[in-house]
Backbone:
């Protein structure tokens, strides 16, 4: 079911967006050579506790997950492109790390993600990361009242294909509100002028993610982490936005 939020409710969602943005800022600063993924998860967990927020991940158990997630972050390294389950891995020079985080504050959820190059970056990694960020901005710009979901999807896909990346549509953006994942689905490829009309009050997460040389993925033996089929690296960018009469409002702006 698609829900539309009142202007008052959108204002009530701002603290969750601010908190999620602050956590991702802290994680970006902390991600460095020699830092363990479990340390990053612990940092986010402490911030959740200190804020009195609620993790959207610990008890999360959708049909595609092998078990309840059990951590508060998704940490995807190199060929791990989505849903990376934090584990005992220490970041090394040249790694690419995607961090996805969602939390509830006062009953409202926000969801956001970013990708960083750890230590000395490869030019190919920087271009991949920059492309997801450009695609995110293009998708947000297309989230205008009167447009349709397909306009967001088309804008994302145009950035990706112009940069030479293939697009997987199995996982993409989604509705956000009292829970982390809701309707509508916001794929990263689509046709202009098609799909759900964008009305003020719609709150969605827009999240382009691309792999360097494939659109095929598989599930790691941990039952959660999604990896590129050919071992190429991935990147992921995401914001929660609200459609307003004046255009898109980025609730997780950093």
Residues:
């Amino acid at each position: 079911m698609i829900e539309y939020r009142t202007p008052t409710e959108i204002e009530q969602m701002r603290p969750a967006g601010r908190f999620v943005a602050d956590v991702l800022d802290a994680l970006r600063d902390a991600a460095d050579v020699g830092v363990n993924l479990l340390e990053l998860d612990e940092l986010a967990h402490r911030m959740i506790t200190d804020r009195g927020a609620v993790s959207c991940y610990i008890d999360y158990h959708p049909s595609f997950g092998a078990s309840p997630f059990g951590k508060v972050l998704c940490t995807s390294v190199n060929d791990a492109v989505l849903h990376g389950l934090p584990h005992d891995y220490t970041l090394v020079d040249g790694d690419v790390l995607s961090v996805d985080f969602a939390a509830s504050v006062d009953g409202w959820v926000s969801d956001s993600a970013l990708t960083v190059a750890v230590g000395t970056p490869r030019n190919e990694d920087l271009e991949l990361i920059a492309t997801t960020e450009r695609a995110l901005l293009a998708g947000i710009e297309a989230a205008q009242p009167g447009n349709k979901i397909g306009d967001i999807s088309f804008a994302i896909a145009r950035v990706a294909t112009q940069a030479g990346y293939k697009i997987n549509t199995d996982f993409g953006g989604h509705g956000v509100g009292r829970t982390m994942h809701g309707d509508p689905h916001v794929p990263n490829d689509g046709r202009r002028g098609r799909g759900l009309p964008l009305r003020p009050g719609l709150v969605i997460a827009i999240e382009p993610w691309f792999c360097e040389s494939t659109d095929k993925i598989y599930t790691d033996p941990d039952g959660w982490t999604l990896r590129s089929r050919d071992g190429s690296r991935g990147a992921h960018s995401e914001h929660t936005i609200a459609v307003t009469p004046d255009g898109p409002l980025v609730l997780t702006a950093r």
